[in-house]
Hints:
alpha+beta, Alpha-Beta Plaits, 4-stranded antiparallel beta sheet, 39% helix, 23% strand
Amino acid sequence: MKSKIILICFLLIISFVAFSQNKQTVVSEKGLIKVSIMYPYAEGNTFNMDYYEKTHMPMVAKFIGSNLVKYTIEKVTASGIPNQPLPYMAIGTFYVKSLNDYLAAIAPNRDAIRADFANYTNASPVIIISEVVR
Length: 134
């Protein structure tokens, strides 16, 4: 009986330690600037996700520098309306601290960024800049 109690206490302690180590600090995104680059789906449009993930987005992230908080890459898999075509093929998103710093970092690199489009897509992206409210 005593060994069962010790075992249960041991398991409770291990569970508590594991739970507290898995608890991640949540960084608030409120106030960040979100730059969404959306690649429209249309008959004949192509998109090379491997190149986008491994080459294009890391290149742009380097241009943005320390202003970048994080970036995400999404492969669009379905439309929000059943039996409708995809609105987009892919979406890339940069979360930055300052819009002015983002624009200043991108401006001198705009030609290199645009020239790289041909390496992964033939679609013209739609870009939306917004402020994260929550």
